[in-house]
Amino acid sequence: MTIRVTLTSISVGDQDHALSVYRDILGFAVKHDIDMGNGARWLTLTAPDDPNGVELLLEPNADYPAMKAFKESLRKDGLPFTQLDVDDIDAEYERLITAGLTFTGPVQNMGPAKMAIFDDTCGNFIALVEPLSAPKTETAE
What we know:
Elements: E1 7-11, H1 15-25, E2 29-37, E3 40-46, E4 55-59, H2 65-77, E5 82-85, H3 89-98, E6 102-103, E7 108-109, E8 113-119, E9 125-131
Parallel strand pairs: 1-4, 5-9
Antiparallel strand pairs: 2-3, 3-4, 6-8, 7-8, 8-9
């Protein structure tokens, strides 16, 4: 038996707004957009080059008290909700700033990766990461 991640979610208050950010600015592709009634949708996206990969659910639960407190705590501490990997963080950083997204600071070299954190305008900080090298592991001889 193999266990794998097939779906992850990000809490949003307004699915239409979140879709405009995640599809139109970040470049994700819509996988499913199914009306669930009461104004909610099963709205998932994937990386454009991996349509059968992990789906990102834009989950309309930001107004639930527990989720609201959780998101406020993460933001207060400056912690990202999730991580998105890119091939060229410097180019993406400039592109996303030009598109109107705000970063908490400049791109930082973190050893095996470069990282910058942006505000997705949906109440979440998101880490944008460019892996520079695979971590080296030591082996016993």
